[in-house]
Each structure stands twice: as C-alpha cells, then as structure tokens.
C-alpha cells in the first residue's frame, strides 16, 4: 500500500510537471530565485509573490532605433526604465537599464553611459526596506567610473532578472542600515537607509546619500 501510494504521488507530480506551460515554468524558476534572495530579508517581498514577472518592461519596438543599433550582435533580454543617481552629486537622471545575454547597460537616449559585463560583476546590493534602490558593484579598473546606483520600480523583478542572466545569485546582498559603494579612482561613498513618512532620496549635509 505504501509503495503504491508513493508511486501514485510521483505519477501525479510527473503529470503536473509535464503539463506546465513553458511560460509558467519560466515564472516559477524566477520566483524560486526571488525567494532564495529576498524571502524574510526585504520588505514588500510577500506582496510581490502573486505578481507575475514581465518578460520586459519595454519592448524593442518601444526603443529608439539608434539604441537598438548599439546592441547589434547582442540579444536584448530585458529593458526597464530606471532612475540613475550620479556618484558624486547624486543628481537623479532618467535612464534605461538594458540587460543583454552578456552585459547590463545603463542607457541615455541613444548612448550607452555604462556597460557592465556579467563576467566582471562584483556584486548586487539592495536594502531590507521597501525602497527600490539597487547598487551594481563593478571592479576597480579604468573601464568603469564606479558602481551604478539605480532606482527600479520593480525591484524584485529587476534584481532577479539581473542575477539570473549573470548567473551570480550568490552575489546579491540585502543590507541593513547602510552600504558602501565605489565612486571611482579608489574613492568610496556611503548610502544610508532610514524610515520616514514619505519616500525620498537626497544628499545629506554630511555628503552621504540618504534613502528614506
């Protein structure tokens, strides 16, 4: 009886797995990664569970033709609007985050402002609060001016796509209180996370980037 029961359960599971559509399978795989990275660590995770991830937030047809020309030979996998914060004055600028099969690119109009090859990616940081800030850490070399500081509306989706494409799930860190980021030329900056009545991002008097 126990053997038949186990065989029956295995058969039901097998039928279910074989009947899962390809799109549903992709969703489940992504959600498993999201759970491993954020479950019990970042506010808003529970509310994100039942929200399906989009394949991309902007289709190729929505992009400037000159942007598409920049990625000839690279397949675009995901595009989403972001706010990029300058590393020095922390001025907010509207940008696009374009994820290809091999790299993450911060794009302004029809110009690539920063290209980060997945093979050189050092880490991905976000806070444990409900903000949408993500910092993409890059190596210290002449090709990179410093880490990319971005605000993403769909933080769980974006970080999941990024770490899966880069195959660096283990490099995602959910920090509490503050984090350090590289400005360039060996310099570092500090970002502080706090709780307030209204969400905001600003440069404090002490020069730190404060995220409320």
TrEMBL record:
One family from Pfam that matches here is: Myosin_TH1
Q: Name one GO molecular function term.
A: cytoskeletal motor activity
> Can you list the GO cellular component terms from the UniProt entry?
myosin complex
Q: What region holds the TH1 domain?
A: 42-212
The domain of life is Eukaryota
Query: What is this protein's record name?
Result: Unconventional myosin-Ih
State the organism named in the record. Answer: Dryobates pubescens (Downy woodpecker)
């Amino acid at each position: 009886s126990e053997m038949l029961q186990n065989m029956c359960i295995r058969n039901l599971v097998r039928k279910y797995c074989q009947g899962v559509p390809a799109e549903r399978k992709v969703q489940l795989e992504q959600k498993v990664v999201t759970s491993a990275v954020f479950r019990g660590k970042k506010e808003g995770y529970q509310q994100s569970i039942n929200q399906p991830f989009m394949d991309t937030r902007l289709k190729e047809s929505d992009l400037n033709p000159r942007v598409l020309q920049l990625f000839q030979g690279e397949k675009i996998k995901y595009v989403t609007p972001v706010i990029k914060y300058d590393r020095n004055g922390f001025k907010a600028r509207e940008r696009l985050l374009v994820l290809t099969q091999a790299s993450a690119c911060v794009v302004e109009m029809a110009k690539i402002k920063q290209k980060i090859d997945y093979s050189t990616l050092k880490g991905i940081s976000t806070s444990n609060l409900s903000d949408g800030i993500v910092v993409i850490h890059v190596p210290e070399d002449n090709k990179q001016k410093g880490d990319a500081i971005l605000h993403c509306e769909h933080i769980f989706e974006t970080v999941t796509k990024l770490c899966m494409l880069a195959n660096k799930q283990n490099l995602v860190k959910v920090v509490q209180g503050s984090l350090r980021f590289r400005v360039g030329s060996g310099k570092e900056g500090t970002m502080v996370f706090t709780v307030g009545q209204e969400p905001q991002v600003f440069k404090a008097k002490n020069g730190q980037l404060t995220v409320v």
